[in-house]
Amino acid sequence: MRRAWSLLTAAALAAAGFLAAGPPAAAADADLVRNGGFEAGLDGWSCSAGSGTAVTTPVHGGTTALRATPAGQDNARCSQTVTVKPDSTYTLGAWVQGAYVYLGASGTGTTDVSVWTQSPGAWKQLTTTFRTGPATTSVTVHTHGWYGQPAHVTDDVTLVGPDPGGPGQPQPPAAPTGLTASATSSSSVLLTWTAVAGATSYTVHRDGAAPLTVTSPSAAVSGLAASTTYTFRVAAVNAAGGSPQSAPVSVTTGSGGGGGGGGGLPAHALVGYLHTSFANGSGYVRMADVPASWDVINLAFGEPTSVTSGDIRFRLCPVAECPNVESPAEFKAAVKAKQAAGKKVLISIGGQNGQVQLPTTAARDTFVSSVSAIIDEYGLDGLDIDFEGHSLSLATGDTDFRNPTTPGIVNLISAVKALKARYGPGFVLTMAPETFFVQLGYQFYGSGPWGGQDPRAGAYLPVIHALRDDLTLLHVQDYNSGPIMGLDNQYHSMGGADFHIAMTDMLLTGFPVAGNTARVFPALRPDQVAIGLPATTNAGNGHTSPAEVTKALNCLTKKTDCGTYQTHGTWPGLRGLMTWSINWDRFGGWEFSRNFDAYYGRTA
Question: Among residues 177, 194, 172, which one has the least CA distance to residue 247?
Answer without folding.
Answer: 177
